Amino acid sequence: MPNRILSSLAGLAAAALSASLFAAAPAAAAPAPERVQAATTTVSAYAGSPQEALNNKAFYDAVMKSALAKQAKAGNRLAAVTVRYRVNAPTFATQISRSTQIWNSSVTNVRLVQSTSGYDFYYTEGNDPRGSYASTNGHGRGYIFLDYAQSRVYNPLRITAHETGHVLGLPDHYSGPCSELMSGGGPGPSCTNAYPNSAERSRVNQLWANGFTGLSGTFKTIR
């Protein structure tokens, strides 16, 4: 009798252990909570890649070509090149307005103007594991995507101003200091600077001054 009881108890214990392991399996495979996952993907999104650099360059080229085409058609060869944008990101409307003010007060050869039609690029928003980024369809139109999760970890105004910097021709430089806008998330979430430094301002002015050569009818790729 005691052996039978022990055998029964052992069987029950084994069944309980098997059940607990089975029940625990889905929990172990479940995705991390949104907040934790967002922090992980946001940090990795700032690592950069050759493909991201090429995409940023293509975006700038497309916007440059689109803006210069409009300017040439209007016969305006004297004023700063006007780049028109549309806002389809209501959550970031304040940051978009502020970042364009920052850029317009920082450079002289290009001006960002909000428009609902005939725009060269637009801002949009949502969730993406890549974080925020600039993209183009290669046909004179592009967009800046602003990521919800990333903006909860990093300063949203800095993110917006940084991505707008790609429109104006600046590449990422994640190893730079906080004072360098295009260092993005490299300095960490504590960095809130949303202003380009003197070298970045000078580079944008140089790029868009050179862009005036495109008004003759031949659009040149600025390197």
UniProtKB/TrEMBL annotation:
List the Gene Ontology MF annotations in alphabetical order.
metalloendopeptidase activity; zinc ion binding
Instruction: Give the main EC class.
Output: hydrolase
Q: Does the keyword Protease apply?
A: yes
Q: Which residues bind Zn(2+)?
A: H162, H166, D172
- Which Gene Ontology terms describe the biological processes this protein takes part in? proteolysis
List the active-site residues. E163
User: Which reaction equations make up its catalytic activity?
Assistant: Hydrolyzes proteins with a preference for Tyr or Phe in the P1' position. Has no action on amino-acid p-nitroanilides
Q: Does the keyword Metal-binding apply?
A: yes
List the InterPro entries. Answer: MetalloPept_cat_dom_sf, Peptidase_M7
Q: Identify which cofactors the protein needs according to its UniProt entry.
A: Zn(2+)
Q: List cystine links.
A: C178-C191
Q: Which top-level group of life is the source organism from?
A: Bacteria
UniProt keyword terms in alphabetical order: Hydrolase, Metal-binding, Metalloprotease, Protease, Signal, Zinc
Q: Which residues form the signal peptide?
A: 1-23
EC number(s): the record gives 3.4.24.77
Cellular component terms (Gene Ontology): extracellular region
Pfam families according to UniProt: Peptidase_M7
Q: How is the cofactor bound?
A: Binds 1 zinc ion per subunit.
Q: Which family is it part of?
A: Belongs to the peptidase M7 family.
The molecule here is called: Extracellular small neutral protease
Species this chain originates from: Kribbella flavida (strain DSM 17836 / JCM 10339 / NBRC 14399)
